[in-house]
């Protein structure tokens, strides 16, 4: 998913799972419908405060659904588990390990993304270390990550001008505010609550994002 040249197409929708999945069978049915829309470019399994066994079981269950729809599945935080389940990559925060170690675990045909908050310096470091994409944010207040570092959308245009590495915008993104991030240079917008908590459900939500990003 991390091809910056995809940017001249509409900005992609990068979907994060909820932090907890209570009913995996039901979630898979919903995810199948969401991915069948063709709107989602990438899915990140972002489970928090669960045992490794739950991450592994969930990743193994989601991979066939993602691949049926040709959507890469990245794991949040855990390059080791991404390698174990043969996921398509990993997203690393600044405390989640370094790119070089993740690359050793995953190999060269997997995607590695790195959280860079509002820092071009961190983004250049990540790029030099071999990240496939960098993530900036939070651009708007997020109910999912309430204490995230705020970021200004000018960082997206600056990054777009000076590098060829894809950038992802994250944090409080909705159908109403995603366009300004795409116009500023985001290649992908990463979204959680605006999809899973949409009043008309997640399938309707991704359709509204599709229209907003077209
Ligand atoms: C695409 C994307 N961007 C940023 C993050 C945040 O990662 P991190 O800072 O490690 O925070 P957690 O998600 O682990 O709480 C992300 N997950 N995905
Ligand atoms: C993981 C993460 N990192 C910065 S904001 C955020 C949460 C994104 O979720 P939402 O789209 O619900 O704000
Ligand atoms: Mg993390």
Give an account of the 3D structure.
The chain is an alpha/beta fold and 214 residues long. It has a single domain (4-213), classed as Alpha-Beta Barrel (TIM Barrel). It has nine helices and eight strands. The chain has an eight-stranded parallel barrel with strand order 1-2-3-4-5-6-7-8, surrounded by seven helices. Strand 3, helix 3 (79-85) and strand 4 form a beta-alpha-beta unit. Helix 1 (24-36) packs parallel to helix 2 (52-68), helix 2 (52-68) crosses helix 3 (79-85) and helix 3 runs parallel beside helix 4 (99-106). The longest helix has 17 residues, at 52-68. The structure holds the ligand Cc1ncc(COP(=O)(O)OP(=O)(O)O)c(N)n1, 4-methyl-5-hydroxyethylthiazole phosphate and magnesium ion. Magnesium ion (MG) is lined by residues 76-77, 93, 96.
């Amino acid at each position: 998913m991390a091809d910056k040249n995809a940017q001249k197409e509409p900005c992609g929708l990068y979907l994060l799972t909820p932090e907890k999945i209570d009913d995996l069978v039901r979630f898979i049915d919903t995810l199948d419908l969401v991915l069948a829309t063709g709107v989602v470019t990438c899915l990140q399994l972002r489970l928090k405060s669960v045992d490794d066994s739950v991450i592994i079981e969930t990743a193994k269950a989601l991979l066939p659904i993602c691949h049926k729809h040709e959507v890469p599945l990245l794991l949040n935080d855990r390059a080791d588990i991404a390698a174990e389940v043969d996921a398509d990559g990993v997203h690393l925060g600044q405390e989640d390990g370094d790119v070089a170690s993740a690359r050793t675990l995953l190999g060269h045909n997997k995607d590695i993304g790195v959280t860079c908050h509002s820092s071009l310096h961190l983004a250049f470091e990540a790029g030099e270390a071999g990240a496939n994409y960098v993530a900036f944010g939070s651009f708007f207040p997020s109910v999912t990550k309430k204490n995230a570092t705020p970021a200004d959308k000018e960082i997206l245009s600056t990054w777009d001008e000076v590098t060829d590495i894809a950038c992802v915008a994250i944090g409080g993104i909705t159908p109403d505010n995603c366009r300004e991030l795409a116009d500023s240079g985001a290649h992908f917008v990463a979204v959680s609550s605006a999809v899973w908590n949409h009043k008309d459900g997640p399938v309707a939500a991704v359709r509204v994002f599709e229209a907003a990003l077209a």
